[in-house]
Amino acid sequence: MKLPVTSLINAICLALFLLHTESTQPPFSCDSENPQTKSFPFCQTTLPIRKRVQDLVSRLTLDEKISQLVNSAPAIPRLGVPPYEWWSEALHGVSGYGYGVSFNGRISSVTSFPQVLLTTATFDSHLWYRIGQAIGKEARAVYNEGQAKGMTFWAPNINIFRDPRWGRGQETPGEDPLVAGNYAVAYVRGLQGDSFQGGKLNDGHLQASACCKHFTAYDLDNWNGVIRFGFNAQVTKQDLADTYQPPFKSCVKEGRASGIMCAYNRVNGVPNCADYNLLTKTARGEWGFHGYITSDCDAVAVIYNVQKYANSPEEAVADVLKAGMDVNCGSFLKNYTKSAVQQKKLPESAIDRALHNLFAVRMRLGLFNGNPNKQLFGNIGPDQVCTQEHQELALEAARNGIVLLKNSAKLLPLSKNKITSLAVIGPNGNNAYVLVGNYEGPPCKSVEILKALQSYVKNTKFHPGCNAVNCTSVAIDDAVNTAKGADYVVLVMGLDQSQEMEERDRLYLTLPGQQESLVTAVAKAAMKPVILVLVCGGPVDVSFAKYNPKIGSILWAGYPGEAGGIALAEIIFGDHNPGGKLPVTWYPKDFIRVPMTDMRMRPEPSSGYPGRTYRFYNGNKVFEFGYGLSYSTYTYEFVSSTTNTLHLNQLLNFPTTTESSNLFRSLSVSNMGTDICEKAKFSAVVGVENSGEVAGKHPLLLFARHDRPSEGNPLKQLVGFQSVSLNSGERTEIEFVISPCEHLSTTTEDGLMVIEEGYRYLMLEDKEYPINIVI
């Protein structure tokens, strides 16, 4: 059959293109050696990206436009545009999840940093930034080596860890909105190639593209028959304003993220991916977002097939594109967008709008500037993956994130010189894979906790104790016999991805199966108090161990990444002084009586609803947010130079307008404006001294509380955190910059931020400092 001339040209272009991309070169457009494409205006790097995108989109047919609206976007051979894969992952290291990255070439492994929740326990934003930098560099190296079909990475996950049963809580920066927002900013700036302070990306060039997910109020996957796809999160304006939205606002406004993922769930009846107010008015309008918005995978199909929000597939397509979504992870838009246009449910201009956002990001990544190996970031190769620097960074993160929860009679650290035998017992003791968590990449190295401990004590025996982490079968007698002959016993228990992960929420907060019985029996039989190590993401009620004198020490190791076993051994034997602090509340086991579907943060005393997270939860706790011990002791004091009265009324350049709330005067933050909020900032100076015998690094967590606690106000609120390193006997002073508009305001039921007159108290460990706000 004779091909038409245009089809023949396309076939030849495709063949030449495929021949070109089969090499180890990364896929790119605007090859300077291709006379056909280099003359296109969209290839002219001297033109603004906006103009280049306009030119490219104007050249596309409707079918070509529609083809680009899905994550696996095909090539457009006649324009020299290669295929592009939007879906790649980099939660705590470049990952093989998604379709964008392959480890079948020269790069077969990458640095596997601790899972995000443990990294957050360092409360060290500089560390978070450096991890983002390392991941972004390794991502670009994988691309430059021709092992990536895209440079858009769907991380970070910055949802609030609202409920301890959530299987994906391990992926998040914990339960505090300020921490989650700061983590987002640091990670995004690092990954995208910005400076720590921001502002370096004014020219638009991206090392890699980060994506804030899952927008918004997404924190339930599969609980008691409630599936994330159909879940309708009922969220108050108050909770949206001061809990669920702030991390995303920070990610966009300060981090300048180039991507957002809209979540599966509905919020107050409206699917996130079809919410114009959320995607366009809030993210783009109020926060100034410039980038692309992707659906979670098959989320558009869910809108029609599961949520029944749209009456037809074409209506679902129209809903999401009109709302401001740009690309569909899945095939739904590929299948139904053309018929939506034909049925006049969707104007072609809505497709053009989405394509402008998509191609702009690809151009910012340098993928339309010719051979990327000759461009900015082109010199990043395999030799910059799994470097000694990156592996040391992974070890540093694990060392500083692991949390010491109990240390009776200073059981830890163990003496390296006096121990002749050690027993390691537990299903997580000899498993390196469990340490990397989910959304993992192949690590540079794998070191089991057992092997790391054996490097300190050669005579170390091991018994798993359980058949698996679920511990449906337990060998107590064998484990007890192993423990009896050892100087000390380390029990390595907890969870793994069979217990908590995406699409798998927990039903219980206790250790799985018969783990508790195993721990108790071994502790009873051991010669000395035992050490309990918990490898897990979400919190576990280990009250039995907390109050058992035969269990001398408890360590939370999270999922500590490729170097986690080494870090843990260093802490147990005193080569590192632990300083991590919990980024989540550890609830008692009876918290499971609270429905996971109840999204309210604030308590309701009349019904017995206890509220959620340290900010509002008024029930008993196993361990508090911010809790963590050290081998050192620290003392704190507020320095007297800190102001104790804020005369906000003197800063106003307009007549004071106040609102009355419970007979107390308050001032609207939005009425104050940016300039006055900036002028109202003040410094709180804290003295800290290491009065212990060993050097240590730990974070200072500064809280504020209202002098009039009420149902609507937090019990306390984190307003700042900094990590400090001190030698034994050393003292230093740390400055915290406090913004009354951000840190000392409260949220009304309508979601408005106000500053109320009266006293606030800054809190640091056992010290408080009063500040009187005058309006």
Please give a quick description of this structure.
The chain is of the alpha/beta class.
Task: Look at the helices and sheets and give the structural class.
Answer: alpha/beta
Mean pLDDT: 94
| Biggest sheet features | 6 strands, mixed
Could you give the count of β-strands? Answer: 31
Please report the number of helical segments: 22
Oligomer: single chain
List unreliable stretches of 5+ residues.
Answer: 1-23
Share in β-strands: 15-25%
Helix content: 25-40%
Provide the gyration radius in Å.
27 Å
Mass-distribution shape: globular
**Termini Cα gap:** 84 Å
In spatial order, strands of the major sheet run 14-19-18-17-15-16
Keywords: Glycoprotein, Glycosidase, Hydrolase, Secreted, Signal
Subcellular location: Secreted
InterPro entries: BXL (IPR044993), Fn3-like (IPR026891), GH (IPR017853), Glyco_hydro_3_C (IPR002772), Glyco_hydro_3_C_sf (IPR036881), Glyco_hydro_3_N (IPR001764), Glyco_hydro_3_N_sf (IPR036962), Ig-like_fold (IPR013783)
GO cellular component, one term: extracellular region
